[in-house]
Amino acid sequence: MYIGRSRGIQGNKNSCYLDSTLYAMFAFTNTMDYMLSSPVDGPVNQTIQKKLRESVVNPLRECGFVGAGHMRMLRDLLSKSSTLAGLQDEEKEPEELLNVLFTEIFNIQPLLSFRDGANEISHVNLCQILLERDPHSSTMPHTQDLLTRYFVSQNLFFHTQPDLLLLQVPRSGKDFKLYDTVLPSTELQLGGLCGGVWGSCYICNKKPYMKCPQCYINQEFKHKYSAVPYCETCCTLVHSHPDRERPCP
Predict the structure, then answer these.
(1) Collapsed DSSP state (helix, strand, coil) of residue 73
(2) DSSP string covering 75-107, please?
(3) Which of 98, 170, 184, 226 could staple 125 via S-S, CB 3.0–4.6 A?
(4) CB count in 10 Å sphere of residue 151
(5) Of the candidates 126, 97, 100, 84, which has an alpha carbon nearest to the alpha carbon of residue 18?
(6) pLDDT digits (tens, 9 = 90+) for 146-187
(7) How far apart are CA 33 and CA 28, in angstroms?
(8) Between β-strands 167-168 and 127-128, what pairing exists: parallel, antiparallel or unpaired?
(9) Distance between CA 165 and CA 136 in Å, rounded?
(10) Which residues are CB-neighbours of 151 under 8 A, at least 6 positions away?
């Protein structure tokens, strides 16, 4: 239904960030449909909600296509309501668009809460995966791999397990592509990425007392879903090897 000519959302004047974000939010899932009917403040915001529902989401689902004219009108309305300049014709980051929609238009609380190694908590709407290419891997990455590597590299956890997770995979520009292709994971395992959810020791299945992000990065001990959890005994044993003598953070 969404393959071929006159399918998807038609782009116009640097609208790729808007087209791809709305497509991801509404084409194949109704998880965010509450935005289309929840009360909003002010006549302009109400018009934006109606335009989004009737001229974007409905035709996208019914016909598989939204013309550039409808998107231009939506951008004009967004520019009237938002404090963010350049929404009519400039390229923006998806996170900037989500902040406009969630904060300024629909008054929705941030979707995600992160906790870092210093126990500082931040609230965002989008998880933007920022990574260098893995020099040890020649395989095509999956979303799960990229998400986990990002959390491990940043010593980051979900403060609370999200009900809804919007991801932006590493960017591919016109002149540079970090990855030629990223394979979407049909399911994401978040248990090991949530603070306070430890699982069991990777070696003996006993209750762990720590997680080692260095062991996740090490290909020999690469765990599928998170930094590798160890009990105290196994942690000492594993890190006694000459190649793994670096202490866990």
Answers:
(1) helix
(2) HHHHHHH-S-TTTTTS---HHHHHHIIIIIIS-
(3) 98
(4) 23
(5) 97
(6) 898 888 788 788 988 898 999 988 865 555 668 878 898 888
(7) 11
(8) parallel
(9) 28
(10) 157, 193, 226
